[in-house]
Amino acid sequence: MNLITGELEKKTIEPEEIKNHIGEIIKIHGSIYKIRKMSDFSFVLLRTKRDVLQCIFTPETAEFKEEELREESCVIVTAKVIEEKRSKTGYDLQMMGLQVLSLPKEGSPIVINNKLVDTSMENLLNYRPVTLRNEKQRAIFKLQEGICIGFRKFLAKENFTEIHTPKIVQAGAEGGANIFSLDYFGKEAYLAQSPQFYKQMMVGVFERVFEIAPVFRAEKHDTSRHLNEYTSVDFEMGYVESFRDIMQMETKMLQSAFAYLKEEYQKEMELLKVKLPQADAIPEIKFRDAKEKIAAEYGRTIKDYDDFEPEEEKLLCEYMQKETGSEFVFVTHYPSKKRPFYAMESREDASETESFDLLFRGLEVTTGGQRIHSYEEQVKKMEKRGMNTALFESYLLMHKYGMPPHGGLGLGLERFTSRLLLQDNVRFSTLFPRDINRVTP
Amino acid sequence: MNLITGELEKKTIEPEEIKNHIGEIIKIHGSIYKIRKMSDFSFVLLRTKRDVLQCIFTPETAEFKEEELREESCVIVTAKVIEEKRSKTGYDLQMMGLQVLSLPKEGSPIVINNKLVDTSMENLLNYRPVTLRNEKQRAIFKLQEGICIGFRKFLAKENFTEIHTPKIVQAGAEGGANIFSLDYFGKEAYLAQSPQFYKQMMVGVFERVFEIAPVFRAEKHDTSRHLNEYTSVDFEMGYVESFRDIMQMETKMLQSAFAYLKEEYQKEMELLKVKLPQADAIPEIKFRDAKEKIAAEYGRTIKDYDDFEPEEEKLLCEYMQKETGSEFVFVTHYPSKKRPFYAMESREDASETESFDLLFRGLEVTTGGQRIHSYEEQVKKMEKRGMNTALFESYLLMHKYGMPPHGGLGLGLERFTSRLLLQDNVRFSTLFPRDINRVTP
């Protein structure tokens, strides 16, 4: 009987090992990214897991014909590693042998192996399975992985427990028009707009929890910053003294993630020319003060006292950066009527909540705040809003049987990435975006 | 202007720090889990993030009255750390002061602070926000976190890139009756049954990718092993020589995750009396041979030559453990007609696929295999199945423009956890289960 022991036979070496084989002959696998013909030799770029390696083809040293090389074919290359001080890697790969593992049926209709993929956003997204093979395109999502790992490492260190909460939900969802509904074995169910209720419940269990998972919003907005499905980084923590504890935790998380990116994702940051923002001291400003400040500073009249216009978020960031140097700003004390029923109201002024948004380079990337933990207070607020508390019975179980003072936040991973990369559309940082017009690929 | 610098003021210490404060007075926060009255003192158990700490209340040393102690209230305890060799922790916590942060409205209708929550599964699940506060109940999900982290650490080390793929999908889904549909702005869309297509596409980009995320199956089964939403651990890798490379990778992943649990989750494993299985050598057996072996060994007649009955999976595991000592078994070469259209058929016998399932203690926990990477081969197979290839245009882009030989697997996190814990229902390892009768809490 054959036994599987976990020993993977390796016929090729990893790109990062090549430098240890100067003067030797190695085998390496990858996809031929680009062939650049020069007068008497060719550069052959090989796309590997994370790198694009430069190989050199000369008819004299190769045991195969140049015609056998084809872009986007998958190959195993036998090459001699020749020291080359002028090369970024410190070596050149002189091609000797070629084993073709697979061939494309045809060439891509969109050129993917130049520095930039020169096409419309529509095309870029329609041809995602191919356009993502571009070096810079894929670097966006490698970097996004780094952000996630950075967050996770930090949260684990701070004793947050990672949870998996359901995305199909029923009664008790936050409601509103922005919710997708589905037929669940004859009953109506919904797609979760956030893990809000579940992460609160789990604070009663583990005190500190987090989840990185998809959320769904049936918003009909067709803008550069809205997605109908996105990855939400959610955390929730108990035993807070105020919503500022959550802002402190987020600030610490950002600092930690940026340090991690610096350490492990330099490659992608260079390629994408990322300038990491400072997160050592993030200013906070009350929502109402922010509204007035923007109006005064930029000669605008306030149309809506309860919400920001997108332009105001941009101007506020511009202003705060000028004043404090920070590309982040916490806006606090959002009006109660614009915040959900579980938001804790300020003791001094019930028209305001113990809540915040984090704006980053002109865009809101996080919403957070302290939640109501008292059963009586929660029920009262729901009744005041005309909500049917019976529908929230299982949600209210936690309040009824005891909850610590707590709060948390949700950060949109794609938005955050797109601001980090200074992109003008969140779709560029979304692997396979879902919007009002797009469900494919 | 107030600046948030990421400094979290700590008024209490962490449980793991207590041992460094023998003889000192400390403050610690938590929820009062249980009060056990003895003749002239009381044990007061405090539930913290991961531990249940034993405090001692004596009227002589406490500055508060015993009546102020209430189960499931959230408190800050001031206590003297007294060395106590007979205690597991090496110390006792002598209660001095008490600050009550919150009180439950009433006591839980289900007793949650005994060793076991003595109630029906129905009740256990209906009262999840409360029953999960039980020490053993929550340990299940702490351990599940450990499994996830173990997998992730391993996959990162093996250079897999973590991705986030969409859960709302349209044309090109695997189809069948077991799919939830929803109205997506007037178009029909579906909930992804797996990240299959997307992870394959991403193999063309990063060579190795993984995702841990929810998947949705509209199966009408009401069994102890089916869920309609579960957490799938998916990986997919390029440049494989055969589907055995994937079995090797999974075996290595299991070994690595178990080693990680041993290191970091001893606490929960002791509490739950977990016996980690051996994964150093997992036997493989062909599907057809397995069917025949079970029939012969247990005197059964084969009713269905194309599929296992649940009883057969159990018997096969029993038999293989007897023969080899392994609690795992890879079953290979499943019939083509029972595998999806992207499964690679065996060169020797097209009625079989280059695929496998991993059975663990009587239950299938993983499905995997090699996929078709050639465009022509994939189109031919789809046409043979009468599928409309036009609906799969974006899926087929990757094949058309070049893909390496590749394969991967999906592992059900909740099933895996429940087999590890030898539970007789997968719902016990699901935080908030979704089944044909349950969408709450």
Look at the structure and name the CATH superfamily of the largest domain in chain A: Bira Bifunctional Protein, Domain 2
Summed up, the helix count of chain A is 11
CA(first)-CA(last) distance of chain A = 43 Å
Described by the principal axes of the CA atoms, the overall outline of chain A is elongated
Provide the low-confidence segments of chain A as ranges: none
CATH topology of the largest domain in chain A: BirA Bifunctional Protein, domain 2
Summarize model confidence as the mean pLDDT of chain A.
Answer: 96
Order of helices and strands of chain A: EEEEEEHHHEEEEHEEHHEHHEEEHHEH
Number of domains of chain A: 2
Please provide a written account of the structure.
- The structure is a homodimer of 441-residue chains.
- The first copy, chain A, has 441 residues and is α+β, with helices and mostly antiparallel strands.
- Chain A folds into 2 domains: 15-102, OB fold (Dihydrolipoamide Acetyltransferase, E2P), CATH 2.40.50; 135-429, BirA Bifunctional Protein, domain 2 (2-Layer Sandwich).
- Helices cover 28% and strands 26% of the residues of chain A.
- An 8-stranded mixed beta sheet of chain A has the order 7-11-12-17-16-15-14-13, sandwiched between helices.
- Chain A starts with a strand and ends in a 21-residue tail after the last helix.
- The model of chain A has no long low-confidence stretch (mean pLDDT 96).
- At the A-B interface, strand 1, strand 2, helix 2, helix 3 and strand 7 of A face strand 1, strand 2, helix 2, helix 3 and strand 7 of B.
